[in-house]
Design a protein that fits this description.
The complex is a heterodimer of chains A (259) and B (579). Helices cover 33% and strands 17% of the residues of chain A. Chain A is of the alpha/beta class and 259 residues long. In chain A, helix 1 packs across helix 6, helix 3 packs across helix 4 and helix 4 crosses helix 5. With 579 residues, chain B is of the alpha/beta class. In chain B, the strands form three sheets. Chain B has an eight-stranded mixed beta sheet with strand order 6-5-4-1-3-2-14-7, with helices on both faces. Chain B has a seven-stranded mixed beta sheet with strand order 9-8-10-11-13-12-19, sandwiched between helices. In chain B, helix 17 crosses helix 20. Classes of the chains: A alpha/beta (259), B alpha/beta (579).
Chain lengths: 259, 579
């Protein structure tokens, strides 16, 4: 696995779950290579800007470190240019839910065959703690010292509404679980969206909560019924559901473009 | 040259068509322009329209001559009025014996136009032939041929070539009806116009010519979001892409994503994966692209960009022209990085600039902008677009990778070899961060400086190639101490006005705005006694750039910023006052 690491020094906070996502991804790449399912030269990882975006420096593979919120258009540009490439994107809630939300909607609508992994820590961490689109109402950050007055939005619901053909959520602390869903995302033909709950241990430490408040959804899923998936991702439950909620096959953007 | 002796006015004929949006005014102007071009005339066709789909006043002017014509004229010899408004709006622009064609005239119109009013049953003729109303302008086209005293037998074949794409038969029949209508009435001819033999030239607008230049230089992708006046590049290429697909030729793809920010970021992704990509927009759309434009600079990703200026700031007068974005463009993007900016002045130069931009951006891995404006983008003139003169320059692309590939390797000329994902043995890292040669983020001040120097060293190399390009062009008397300076589409009005000047000056056109050929500009201005600059903006932006780059201060400025291009005769008067 060592050849997947660069000599760049890891600058995430010690214990940051970003490292767990990095480990899950490297393990998956190694597995796919061993199975003969992936040639390393055909893999491209694209990063946004935020703590998550440092991941491109730590991966000794083809990478494009894009701008804040703009990785999705870059990913789709790479995919249309060469559909043989496997394109994965690492983004954050600030990156793709706040700054670049329009691209999220349109990538899903287009069903571009790229894979988006969101490191969702519900906070702008690299800029030292402000509320993002998924921070809860009342979140006390440096730009909202009296507590955020906005409700967060539900990114999974947004993706279902926008036409994503693969919608999933995992918890970064569960490396095996995250790796398993990442594999399904990559194997899925079409736009794969995966929200990875990734507590920020410095600016919004939710580790204690998520440790006991997640569960894996059962065999009814992934559903091919949009209605069922929407019900599940909007259900008010005591614990947060993890797994693939929705998965359908549709022609991809690239297939149609080159048809 | 094109200077006439005193009292010898150039023989130029101008036809104008006006009507409501949706009446087919643009098509009528273009069809007449193509017809006249194929007949052997030099033609300039302009089109003026408001920002709406139906109802507003649309107006097309077609000026033509045997000699090269650089701009249309506002004085009209024939007015084709598709509605009453057209007659009233343009009644003061008619030459003494100008003919007015209209479906109907009321008593007041007849009093005003007298013998020159010519009732032309355009709608009635289309109805008789069950033709769509929009084809009624073909009746007028035939009538214009009669006024020019062209034998119908001679023009029939050319009309067939003009209309071959969209059911020529009905249009040719309609034209014949228009021609015969005047002939049967024994109406007077206007005047005969001499023309050249068909020299194989084409009528091209700036946007189409630019797009053809991109194609000649091996375009793989065109990505754009529609914005006037750049939209017709998108339309033309989308249509070509479809056509090529059907004919099984080399494919290029056209994509219209969600917004301009997506356009440029998607384009950079496509280039990273190896495709020669261009994008196009107007000033406002390019404003949205700024951050990613800087990313192109930082990541050294080749990209060709068309920016067509329109009247601004903000939404401005969106369908009208201006040259207000020069300083924005040459200074665009945050941070310091080199860029290539070429401002062509006519369709032939736009064709060349499209090809050069795509080739140069790949050769130097520096973003390249072609700066157009509405007057150039959407107006047409008789042109030669010679694809055989364009080569595809691929730049430094790594052929064999034997380990240790460095995307940003520091080299003597500053240009690193490109490799694309899918290449075994190469790890290709592009990034918006300042980076090491391998493409990994760095904050080491030494490396930050070294990489900045690397990026700028490419400019030095490019400047060595100045002599291979028309960075500036000189017309007129190269020894004259009177120099008229201009850029972009203003070239048309300036050179056309040149036909009426009392003294023959030197004309200096500046095409390369970045890098700027200070040496050549200085050489052309240093001995001048009287320098006049002509610009379609309020602040004299090129004058400011010239002062910055050469220290030469130009005080005589003729500036126009009312959203309209310069008018030839008015400009000639203004120039004569100063010369």
């Amino acid at each position: 696995m060592e050849n997947l690491a660069t000599n760049a020094k890891i600058t995430w906070c010690p214990g940051c779950p970003n490292s767990a996502i990095l480990v899950a991804f490297r393990k998956l790449v190694e597995e796919l290579r061993n199975e003969g399912r992936l040639k390393l030269e055909n893999l491209v990882a694209v990063g946004g800007i935020g703590c998550h975006g440092k991941i491109t420096d730590y991966l000794n593979i083809n990478t494009f470190t894009s701008l804040h919120g703009r990785l999705l258009p870059t990913m789709q540009g790479i995919k249309i240019a060469n559909p043989n490439l496997q394109v994965v994107g690492f983004s954050g809630d600030g990156d793709s839910y706040s700054e670049g939300a329009e691209h999220l909607i349109h990538a899903a609508k287009r069903n571009s065959d790229v894979n988006l992994f969101i490191h969702d820590n519900q906070v702008f961490a690299l800029t030292t703690g402000q509320a993002t689109a998924t921070s809860p109402k009342g979140f006390k950050g440096k730009s909202t010292p009296s507590g955020s007055i906005e409700e967060p939005f539900n990114p999974l619901l947004l993706m279902l509404a926008s036409g994503a053909t693969f919608v999933a959520r995992t918890y970064a602390g569960d490396i095996e679980g995250t790796k398993k869903i990442m594999r399904q995302a990559i194997e899925h033909k079409g736009f794969s969206f995966m929200d990875i709950i990734q507590p920020c241990i410095t600016f919004y430490d939710t580790r204690d909560f998520y440790k006991d408040h997640t569960y894996w959804i059962d065999k009814k899923y992934p559903s091919q019924k949009l209605e069922t998936a929407i019900k599940k991702v909007t259900a008010q439950e005591e614990k947060i559901a993890l797994g693939v909620f929705y998965k359908v096959e549709k022609p991809t953007f690239e297939e149609s473009l080159y048809a | 040259m094109f200077w006439k002796k005193k009292n010898q006015s150039p023989n130029i004929f101008t036809v104008a068509v006006g009507g409501a949006a949706g009446d087919g005014v643009r098509e009528a102007g273009t069809n007449l322009g193509r017809f006249l071009t194929k007949l052997g005339f030099e033609v300039f066709v302009s089109f003026d329209y408001p920002s709406l789909i139906r109802g507003g006043h649309n107006f097309s002017r077609i000026s033509f001559s045997k000699e090269k014509i650089y701009n249309d004229y506002s004085k009209i010899d024939v007015l084709i009025a598709l509605n009453d408004e057209t007659m009233h709006l343009h009644k003061n622009e008619l030459n003494g014996d100008a003919v007015v064609f209209s479906e109907k005239f009321d008593a007041e119109d007849l009093k005003m136009f007298g013998q020159n009013a010519m009732l032309l049953p355009m709608i009635k003729t289309t109805e008789e032939l069950n033709a769509p109303a929009i084809t009624r302008t073909s009746v007028a086209l035939g009538a214009v041929c009669y006024l020019l005293d062209l034998p119908f037998g001679e023009i029939d074949q050319i009309l067939r070539r003009v209309f071959k794409e969209k059911g020529y038969e009905i249009n040719v029949t309609l034209a014949e009806k228009g021609y015969k209508h005047l002939e049967n009435l024994g109406f007077r001819h206007s005047r005969r116009m001499e023309h050249n033999g068909d020299g194989g030239k084409e009528l091209a607008d700036g946007n189409t010519a630019f797009a053809k230049g991109l194609l000649a230089a091996g375009l793989d992708f065109y990505i754009a979001y529609p914005m006037t006046p750049s939209t017709s590049i998108l339309h033309y290429l989308a249509k070509q892409s479809r056509f090529l697909k059907e004919s099984g030729k080399k494919l290029f793809k056209v994509i219209h994503p969600e917004n301009e920010i997506a356009v440029i970021n998607m384009a950079l992704g496509a280039v990273y994966a190896g495709k020669r990509t261009a994008i196009g927009t107007a000033g406002g759309g390019f404003a949205l692209m700024q951050e990613a434009f800087a990313l192109a600079g930082m990541s050294e990703t080749p990209i060709a960009i068309a920016v067509s200026q329109r009247q601004a700031p903000a939404t401005g007068s969106p369908t009208h022209t201006a040259q207000g974005d020069l300083k924005f463009i040459i200074n665009s993007g945050h941070g310091e990085f080199p860029r290539i900016v070429i401002a062509p002045g006519d369709p032939e130069e736009a064709f060349k600039a499209g090809a050069d931009a795509l080739n140069l951006t790949w050769k130097y891995q520096v973003p390249a902008i072609v700066l157009l404006d509405k007057h150039l983008s959407e107006n047409s003139s008789t042109s030669i677009l010679d694809i055989s003169k364009i080569a595809v320059e691929k730049g430094k692309v790594a052929k064999n990778i034997s380990g240790g590939y460095k995307r940003y390797q520091i080299t003597e000329d500053g240009v690193s070899e490109m490799a694309f994902p899918g290449t075994a043995g190469a790890v290709i890292k592009a990034t918006s961060y300042e980076h090491t040669e391998e493409g990994i983020s760095t904050e080491d001040p030494k490396l930050v400086k070294a990489m900045g120097d690397k990026r700028f060293s490419k400019l030095k190399q490019l400047e060595k190639e100045f002599s291979k390009y028309d960075t500036v062009k000189v017309y007129g008397d190269p020894k004259s101490k009177n120099v008229i300076v201009f850029w972009g589409s203003t070239k048309g009005a300036v050179l056309e006005a040149g036909k009426y000047l009392k003294k023959q000056p030197k004309f200096l056109q500046i095409l390369w705005m970045s890098p700027f050929d200070s040496e050549k500009v200085t050489e052309n201005l240093k001995d001048a006694k009287n320098i006049i600059i002509v610009e379609n903006n309020r602040t004299g932006q090129l004058a400011s750039v010239i002062r910055e780059k050469t220290g030469i201060n130009i005080e005589n400025k003729i500036l126009k910023y009312d959203s309209l291009p310069f008018e030839v005769i008015e400009l000639a008067k203004q120039l004569n006052e100063i010369l």
